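Pasting two entries for a bug report.
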Amino acid sequence: MTQPETPQAPEMTRSNRDHVRLREQLQAWLQPRLAGATVGDLSVPGNGMSAETVLFDVDTGGETLQLAARLAPDATAMPVFPTSDLKTQYHVIKLVGNQTETPLPRLRWMETDESVIGAEFFVMDRASGVVPPDVMPYTIDSFLLDASDRDRKLVQDRSVEILAEIHKTPIGSETKFLEYDQPGATPLRRHVNHWIHYRDWVVGDRNVPVITDSFQWLEANWPTEADSRPSVLSWGDSRIGNLMYSDFKPVAVFDWEMAGIAPPEVDLGWLSYMHKFFQDITVDLGFPGMPGYLDPEEVRETYMAATGREVSDLHWFRVYNAARHAAIMLRINDRQVHFGEAEAPVNPEDAIIHAKPLREMISD
């Protein structure tokens, strides 16, 4: 059977910023910190939609620094989330880095004065390695497809173990800033209420039955067992596309805008579900992809072996993550319509790529 040609990645605008102007602003800002520094051309990595990351080299006259800046999203570019708190992201990276052995880029500076470039931002060192792409997904074209079964399994296991390491962060006064300001007697209840608020912000007055039905299913099948155990510092956007690898081992963890306090199953479910999302797209396009990868039961067993923690209700958490992701995909489609890259569907549910698999998940 002949394999189809790899499709071109769709056009997806991430920012309205003028990178020539941004380069000049960063260079002026760096002068008091690195005298005589010259900033090279800016580039943008392929993954991520919620905030803008720019990569650049800095010539200090004696050495070349490879840096990255994480910028709050441009307010004119229809951000994916209603708010963006770069200080919280910076703080959580610093906290996890101080409390665990999680591989993280070295943080350099945090800038809260929005007049510098028009938004808050922080600067960190760039890590060296490869990242599984989102568009087109790594299940269609990536280093993982050329890897041996042993090396793919190594990526899977080490990625789960990264979650175990992040979850070692002590929960207490130092993590209070990550608690969602929502009603609820448990961290999971507050976490879900936070995402209900996000769902309502995205959906507005539209009728999107698959999202409504999914959240109703979540309430009707509440995971009492998982909710009753201690929560952890949750990375939030825990997928292999937010990890950098070298020799099939993670060397850097990125994107902390969804961090919070929640049961560990939130991260485990997102890690497993997001592979299903990309695998389903891949099969629909006529490619074999990576079936069986990041299987929830294998993820569960690896995590339990690494931590000694009990893991339960993973199907519920995969549905929870698919429901949250449905709201995110609807917002991303709204952005594409805003930028003229897509037409608004008559039925908003058509904007949710995984609507059918999500319905199957809540009917199981």
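Entry 2 (this is the one that rendered wrong in the viewer):
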Amino acid sequence: MFKIKTLNKISPYGLDNFDQKYYTYGDDIENPDAVMVRSASMHEYEMPASLKAIARAGAGVNNIPVDKCSEAGIVVFNTPGANANAVKEMVVTGLLISSRKVIPAIDWARTLKGNGAEVGKLVEKGKGAFTGPEIHGKTLGVVGLGAIGILVANAAKALGMEVYGYDPYLSVEAAWNLSSSINHAKSLKEIYNNCDYITIHVPLNSETRGMINDESIGSMKQGVRILNFSRAELVVDGDIIKALETGKVSVYVTDFPTDEVLCTEGVIAIPHLGASTPESEDNCAVMAARELINFLETGNIINSVNLPDVDMPKTTDSRICVIHKNIPNMLTQISGLVAQNNINIENMINKSKKDYAYTVLDVTTEVSCELTEKITGIEGVIRVWVIK
């Protein structure tokens, strides 16, 4: 029986994927095999020795201590693309409200309450203060062409915008989903120099933190509109505020309000609604559950942020799974110990991701505890288990 601990309320559409003959789940589970989490912080969570995997029902994993998990041989999954449509719709909303002054216009219209039959005349007299440009025919730069960025680029093109996309790590699979009419920008400078609107869809890391700053804004068009539906820390608050004051930036739309930008003229602060739809929560929960089921039952890994993707059909009754450091001679040592125990390896795969690697061996003989202990004893091996 596999035990799944839930740290947030998880959509029943996701939990229903767990066959109750083989799985038990809930927020009171002790010594779980896996954890499902949405927004709860796990940085202070005490990882039990039984824990093999964590599935985040969402794309970002800032609430999970990924490095600590890697060191303990815990696979961390996310659900890329499951909430992409929900975020795309919010970005399109952001494009429109950054142009048409809809929010201040609605706020102003509320002040007309009590004027009776005069409301219509007052509306016609005052509406000129809220005019704004159409997005049709304008140029949009999409920085990051992952699941969300591609949907945004395609949607903006369908709305009549000229779209430039930039992503030096664009995958072949992603490229197939990108409209052929999207302009391929060869550099961020090309995006900054040419676009009336810029929307950011990149992960937060040491390279992207603070990427929207004095220097990058300085190379943008006068009056550019910037949208941030990725992470607050991608933008330097003080620099964007200065640019709004000078008019270099017309509007900054962010789904990640900070105390510094709140109530600043030109800032449209949305309270992190990008993925806040019931459909998105259902999709993320279903994907997270299926990732855990696949991993726990077969050892295969898909959509891990700290271990390589491995997908090998199970061809024997016993499968040895080994998480280890990505260092020389590991595969030789592991396979050598198996051979010394007169066990035949029918199929094997080994893949790495940065400092860590994952080896899976399908063997024709039952694996003893003695052998798993020997493999565990190899310097650099972090975790070993057998799936029958």
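Dev reply: Rendering is fixed now. As a check, the viewer should reflect this: The CA atoms of residues 166 and 188 lie 7 Å apart.
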